[in-house]
Amino acid sequence: MVNTIRITVNGVEHTVAASSTLQDLLDTLRPEAEPGAPIASAVNGTHVARQARATLVLQDRDAITTFEPITGG
After folding, report:
1. pLDDT in tens, 25-47
2. What is a single Pfam family found in this protein's UniProt entry (predicted)?
3. Which ranges of the chain does DSSP label H, i.e. alpha helix?
């Protein structure tokens, strides 16, 4: 049996494997994204640097927020 946790991403609840990292989550939510694509992320209101995403293991009830750059003119 796989242990799962519940998290929210931009206000939407998701269920993920208990061992999921922030990078695992972003890869699942954005499979078409280029590696290194610009996106900012925060967990429970604290910014998570790109380099730290692969080692930050998500916890039950974490609230993840993602931000993509706004471009245009």
Report:
1. 999 988 666 766 788 999 999 99
2. ThiS
3. 22-29
What span, in angstroms and rounded, lies between the C-alpha atoms of 71 and 3?
39
Q: Could you give all domains of the chain from N- to C-terminal order, each with its CATH number?
A: 4-67 (3.10.20.30)
Q: Structure pTM?
A: 0.85
CA distance 16 to 6: 7
How far is residue 62's CA from residue 60's CA, in Å, rounded to a whole number?
6
| CA angle (18 as vertex; 12, 20 as ends), nearest 5 | 75
CA angle centred on 38, ends 35 and 42, rounded to 5°: 105
